[in-house]
């Protein structure tokens, strides 16, 4: 009977019984290589990126197919390097998911043997030898091959070992994409009822929103029809109504009832535009609502450059400016300007 490549040791129940168990994966040691390596003093992020290049000469298989992880030792910059095929790591993940287990760590089976202070610790199991060396490394292989691997170790340096619990510190090989993951599937039974309630509330809100939109669109259509009828009654000469708001504004702009408002708006904007320019005076101000440039003004300044600054401020204030004659007079210069607002009345 073929032995299992992966087994799980359950460690602690989650808070809710429905959420499954936390577990540590124990991987057959003959599928995991272990080395003790000394690496440069780099940050963890840089070490992860450069690790495949630093240890590629230790592995005979394609390093792209291997999952690598480092386990810290008591010596700075010294690590235990564990290497396992990615296919086995994926198999571990799939099996844990099928059994609704949350993986907290993963170790090769020989790492469950405590390292001896010297020599090697040996455990016989299923025709194999599980070995742990004093430097923390280990292996699993058939007994005949193991004897050859341990040929340089005297019998006095060999100690019988027992399998212990998984290491309490670290995640072992459960790192990167094979690391601890949130058990979404395990939470589905617990979240089923709140999810159904939330979906029901959302559905009611969506239906209510569409109903409200429909009512608003109907009211808008009624108001649009009413405003169109009122516009036609107020302006019977208009035979085609396309945009009530725009056409009403045009009518108001051309109405004889608004010259005073237009005058006040233009003059107020004029005064605001020139108020911070020194030594500016107004010699003449004339308003003709029928003119394309309804406001004509003659300004007095100390020099022509001051008049140019005023002209630019009028443009910045929203005026369409047409310049007339400029002349030099006693104590300064004068300039004629015809103005209209490009923004429209009251904007």
Explain what the structure shows.
It is a single chain. The protein is of the alpha+beta class and 347 residues long. The protein has 3 domains: 6-181, Nucleotidyltransferase, domain 5; 192-252; 256-341, General secretion pathway protein M, EpsM (Gyrase A, domain 2, 2-Layer Sandwich). Helix content is 35%, strand content 29%. Strands 9-8-7-10 form a 4-stranded mixed sheet. α6 (259-274) packs across α7 (304-316). The protein is elongated. The termini are far apart. Residues 14-19 have low confidence and may be disordered.
Topology record:
Blueprint: E1 6-13, E2 21-27, E3 32-38, H1 44-55, E4 66-72, E5 78-85, H2 86-98, E6 101-108, E7 120-125, E8 128-133, E9 138-142, H3 143-149, E10 158-160, H4 184-234, H5 244-253, H6 259-274, E11 281-287, E12 295-301, H7 304-316, E13 319-329, E14 332-341
Helix pairs in contact: 6-7
Principal-axis shape equals elongated
Averaging pLDDT over every residue, what do you get? 82
Task: Trace the largest sheet across and list its strands.
Answer: 9-8-7-10
Quick one: biggest sheet? 4 strands, mixed
Structural class: alpha+beta
Radius of gyration: 44 Å
Q: CATH class of the largest domain, please?
A: Alpha Beta
Strand content: 25-35%
Report the end-to-end length measured between terminal Cα atoms.
90 Å
The CATH topology of the largest domain turns out to be Nucleotidyltransferase, domain 5
Q: Give me the number of helical elements.
A: 7
Instruction: Return the domain count.
Output: 3
